[in-house]
Write a structure and sequence with these properties.
single chain, two-stranded antiparallel ribbon, 2 strands, globular, mainly alpha
């Protein structure tokens, strides 16, 4: 039970995909102009994470190693299509707000990284918990960023007026520079907390610390081998 609990909490705290692993920064910066957008994107990504992790774990002994990455992407794309249709049907406003970033969940590096590094090597239950934990961590980060940017940029939180009409909004928080600023502050805060608790901080964002390093190494090896054959 403790081991399963660790799989669940790992993505929320110690290996938060956005603040600790620095993955999925494109949707993080793009959709967090409002807290509700962050919740919508986070829930959609969580559903895809949980379902794709479960499916890939079930098929891990069936999928040939040479085609595992295309197979993973195909599985992920199937679940993204289902989630996108559900969002369009039941929450069209969220679908409009997220725009192209909803179907782009297919190439979200958080999902592919967990498929390659965890689900393809572990049983179904731990894989589901890992996906759920990573999704919750991703959702919490997006929601927090959305709340901060919406509050300072529009004077509202979840469309509820807080300072709107009383204090002039700082529009820069709704623009890309504001997104980068808030993201940097949250990463710095995460590093400070990690350092205080004796955890490793995010210092080097190169290939050595990337969860998908094994994928890239094998891909580069294949390219070199094919080039040598030519």
């Amino acid at each position: 039970m403790n081991k399963n609990l660790k799989h669940l909490t790992n993505g929320i705290i110690t290996e938060n995909p956005t603040l600790r692993l620095v993955l999925g920064t494109c949707p993080t910066l793009a959709v967090t102009t409002a807290a509700l957008n962050g919740v919508g994107m986070g829930i959609a990504a969580t559903l895809v994470l949980v379902c794709s992790n479960a499916a890939i774990s079930l098929l891990r002994n069936v999928i040939p190693d040479k085609v595992r990455i295309p197979a993973f992407i195909t599985i992920i794309a199937g679940f993204v299509s289902v989630v996108q249709m559900l969002v369009k049907a039941f929450t069209p406003s969220i679908d409009k707000a997220l725009g192209i970033y909803l179907p782009l969940i297919v190439v979200n590096c958080i999902i592919l990284a967990r498929a390659e590094m965890f689900a393809s090597k572990n049983p179904v239950v731990p894989s589901i918990l890992d996906g759920l934990g990573m999704g919750i961590g991703f959702t919490c980060t997006l929601t927090l960023m959305g709340m901060i940017r919406e509050f300072f940029g529009n004077g509202t939180i979840f469309n509820l007026a807080i300072t709107k009409g009383h204090i002039a909004p700082m529009i820069i928080f709704l623009l890309p520079p504001g997104g980068f600023f808030v993201f940097g502050v949250l990463v710095a805060a995460s590093n400070a907390l990690a350092k205080k608790n004796g955890k490793p901080v995010v210092e080097n964002l190169g290939c050595e610390n990337c969860p998908s390093k094994a994928v890239c190494d094998k891909a580069n090896g294949c390219q070199q081998e094919n080039g040598g054959n030519k």
